[in-house]
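Follow-up to my earlier ticket, as requested here are the two runs.
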Amino acid sequence: MATKVLSLRLPEEIAVEIAAVARANGVSVSRAIRMAIEDYVAAQRSDKAFKARLKQRLEEDRELLERLTE
């Protein structure tokens, strides 16, 4: 799987907490953060309001791209 390196800024308190959670679960901080992001994306995919906002955004982007190609 291809990967992309991202920079992430966290408040100190959250950084300490995620490090503790990762240690307790025997995973790296990177893995713990990836797991949290995967859970977040999965939750969004099942959220009807998110899907509606996404469809609206897609329509707006489509309209903009059509105008730019005229």
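Run two:
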Amino acid sequence: MTLRARREAAPARDEGFTLVEMVVTVTVIAVLFLAVAVMLDSSLRALGAAKARARGNDIATQGIEDLQRFSFNNLALCHPPSGTTPAGLETWVTLPVCPTPDDPTEQQAAYEDPCNEPAGNIPRREYTCRRNNIDYTVKRYIAWVDSVRTTKRLAVFVEWTDAVGRHQVSQQSSLRAPDQSAITGLAPPKFSSALPPTVTSSAAPSPQSTLNVTVSATNALVGDLRFRATTENLSRPATAQLTTPIGAHAKNQILDIAVSAGNTFPNYNGFPIIIENESFTVVSGAGTNNWRVLAGGTDPHGAGLQVKFVGDQVFATMHTIGSNDYPQTSTVSLVATDWTATSWDATVTAADGFRFGAGSQYVSFGILRAADGKRTAAFAQTRLELCMEGTSCAAVDRPTIQTTSVTAQPAVGYVPLTSGGELVNDLTVKARTVNVSDLDTVSVNFLTQAGSITVTLTPDPSGTACPAGTNTTPGVACDWIGTLSKDRGYRFSAGTQKLYFAALQVLDMDPATIDNGSTASAESAALEFRQ
């Protein structure tokens, strides 16, 4: 084969890319770059969405922490957020009085939110936070957890739309009432005055330092003893009729009911009612005849049944002799004498069966509001002097309280309180008595935000010897001691108050002993409680 023939037989060699190859190559590269671009865009969008979600969680955390800074007493809303309420948050906590005019946009200075208006004192239910050109819509809920209203559920929902789509995050927490005195919305009940007791046989003018009361040889009252008080922010009992039947329902279910006008029911939400032994709580609609209620049971109820509000309680507390001849505390319920529930009255007669020992005592008055369990108390400044019929009030065997003391360590001239009203240090209380045995009772009574509290004292082993002439009877104790412990969680209001001491004897008519059922009382010096 010639050289030329061999060259012609050899395969042709490319001198470059053909058009088809170029197109294929460019297409492959474009696809690869597009895939990379899509992946990069997706990653950037995912990163942006993650950052947006992180900001949404931060806003939700900010919203829930802002609610948690409110005291339990002030944690409520004037209006529920717009839209459908999430499950479990239907029983929202309301304020009975809101700023006027009622502005749905809540632009009044009283409303606050941590994003725009942090200065108000009412939580804003709905607001918008703008972060990195994204508008975050915040809705906050405050709802009751239980029918007895001891715990509130706080919930914050945050919604936004970003490049990925629509999103929502939420945070929830619970807050339990520190004590029965702490509850939202209702102005605290209080005494305008705890009027001095009066007796039918003694019409001494008020005020007076003491009131003489006669007791028979069987320790019964001679004459009547009257207790009176004037109060604020209370409601008397009321009744009406159910005008729409209630079908079978679940416990804690929200129901709409209608009632007749009836008596005057409270004009604030949250008060309890009873229908045929089933308890309900009025969630909304107070002041009208159409209520939304929280069911406490499951039974159906027909139209025409009685709807009952038991009313708030005002009572007087006094020291009496029990059936076992030992001292006890007895309570007398006062009845509202007007529809505004400001005047309360009760009369105790011998037929009521109370037994009294001779001596002195202070009467305390108490309030228990049905809607929220709030309590308060006051002492009548007039001291009762109980005298046995036909004998002198100054009988030699009557107990007396000679001295009292209240001390704290370190002593700073006042009683320091935490911001919540709790004691910073323990208080030591002491009393020195005459004619009191170790079978008898010595106690101290004081006022807290949760009402009147009594602490029993015990004989003080480190006390000095009894004064001459007082230790002739075995078992006599002269020095008594007790502690008001900061660990008990007593919550005091700032201001000045006295503590009231009482010595209460067992009723034992054995002439060889000094226990004859008599009582003694004394005030401490005024103490200043300072936060």
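The only thing I checked on run two: Helices lie at 3-9, 19-68. Let me know what else you need.
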